[in-house]
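Repro:
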Amino acid sequence: MLILFDIDDTLHDDAKATRAAVDALREHLDLGVPELEFRIRWFDSLRHHFERYLAGQIDFQQQRRARARDALAEDLSDAEADKVFEVYLTAYEKNWSLFADVLPCLDALGEHQLGIVSNGNAQQQRHKLSRLGILDRFACVVVSEDCGWAKPDPRIFARACELGHAHLPNVVHVGDRWDIDALGAARAGLRAVWLDRRGENVAEQLSPDIARLTTLAELPALVG
C-alpha cells in the first residue's frame, strides 16, 4: 500500500514554528504592536498571499515580499522586504520540529511504501524534510511547484500515485486540512484520512466516508 502524507501541520508543527518566527520578528523590529495583533496580521497575510502564489498569480519571492509589506509598510522596497523576511525565515527554520507521534507512526508503517504530497516551494519543502531527518523515509515526494498542480487538484494526487507505482484503491492520503487534503484526496479517488489535530470534528458531520483521526498514533491500525 502507498500512504501519502501532507507535511505542514501533519508531520511538521508548522503553526508552532510560524508563531515563534512571528514573535521573533516582532521583537526584532521593536514595533510596539501587541503580540496577538501582530500574529493575526501575519497569519492573515500568509494565507492570502500563499493562496495567490499557489494560484500562479505571484511567484514565491513575491508572496514573501507581500507578507512583509502587509506586516510593516506597503512602501517597503524589495530589498527592505527581503531583509525583513530573512529575519522571520531564520527564526522559522530554527523552530522546525516534528510532532511527537510522527516517528513512531512512520516506524510502524515500515511494511508500506510512503510518500509526500505538499503544496509549496519544492526546495523549501524538501529541505524541511531533510532537516527533520525523514526525507529518506519517502519513496516519492510531490510538491505543487514541481508538478504545476496544487491540492486539491486531483492531478497532484495522480502524480504521486504514478511515481509510487500504485493504483488508487491501494493509496491512502493523510493531511490536516479538511478542504484540500481530505476532500481533495477523496474526490481524486484515494482513501482519505483527515488528521484533525485541533478537534474540529467537521468530517463526521459532512462525510462519514472520510476517516478522521486526532493523532497519527491511530493510523497504523487504520491502514492495517
